[in-house]
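This section describes the prediction task in plain terms. A model, or a person checking by hand, is given the sequence of a single protein chain and must write out its three-dimensional structure as a string of tokens. No templates, partner chains or ligands are provided. The sample shown here is typical of the held-out split.
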Amino acid sequence: MTEFIGAEVARTLSTIPVRASRQMTATEYQFRVSEILRLFDIDAVADETGVYYGGEGVELEDQPLVEAIRILLARRFGIPEAIAI
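The expected answer:
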């Protein structure tokens, strides 16, 4: 994903109020991200080391959605120490 898309998604999401709930572990975070992405028919599988995408990866038009999901989950549940989004 380009820096511009990531910055634009982050800027837009910063206007949405999200209340932090609790801190997730890195593994919980990876699995939650992959579960939500699969709801959008994005082939994503998680394990303890990260989220992996099938085939050619994430389509260009889906990249802002993936970034938004990662940002919103990180804001809602805290960014796990081992994860850099």
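For orientation: The CA atoms of residues 4 and 61 lie 14 Å apart.
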